[in-house]
Specification:
Layout (H helix, E strand, L loop, with lengths): L3 H29 L2 H18 L4 H4 L3 H32 L8 H19 L3 H11 L5 H8 L3 H21 L1
Helix pairs in contact: 1-2, 1-4, 2-4, 4-5, 6-7, 6-8, 7-8
Length: 174
């Protein structure tokens, strides 16, 4: 049974959707150059607002377009990173000799795993994610990462510990 607060939040979100959805799709389409992706991300934006906002937060938003822009920009960046990751993977597959090319099923499983990994890494703060990827994908030593990121080796060690804790948390939850 919906509470009164949920009803108010639902009405506020519905009003925000009615007033700003077309504008948000147009804004995203200009950024992405693709109306379908823009519509998907706009929908994800409203879903994210509904699932993450405190009940009163939705109706307290004073500048809805600015708020929508912030949420949509983050989702758009995640979308573009996933697309880039997928394209890099598909490009590397094309370089493989035919005998070692993956089956369609293996490719689908691998893409799903990559998307899950991307979602996992997306939950990490930017600096932690950068250090983790430099170590695990690029094979850089902590000293090299520290130099590249202009932080101390101790900071890189903390970043890596945070990244590994997140991975462990996800593995234990699965």
């Amino acid at each position: 049974m919906p509470t009164h607060a949920n009803s108010i939040a639902s009405e506020a979100l519905g009003s925000m959707y009615t007033l700003h959805n077309r504008w948000l799709i147009s804004w995203l389409q200009r950024k992405l150059g693709n109306r379908c992706d823009a519509a998907d991300i706009a929908q994800d934006t409203f879903t994210r607002i509904w699932t993450t906002a405190r009940t009163q937060a939705i109706e307290d938003i004073r500048e809805p377009r600015a708020y929508l822009t912030i949420v949509a920009r983050r989702l758009m960046i995640n979308h573009l990173e996933r697309r880039s990751l997928e394209q890099a993977y598909l490009a590397s597959l094309q370089l493989l000799p035919e005998a070692t090319a993956l089956s369609a099923e293996a490719r689908a499983i691998l893409l799903e795993t990559l998307e899950e990994l991307d979602a996992l890494l997306g939950e990490l703060p930017t600096k932690v994610r950068t250090a983790f990827l430099l170590s695990q994908l690029e094979g850089l030593a902590y000293e090299e990462i520290a130099t590249q990121m202009q932080v101390s080796v101790r900071t890189v060690t903390r970043y890596m510990a945070q990244g590994f804790r997140q991975c462990l948390r996800v593995m234990l939850d699965a």
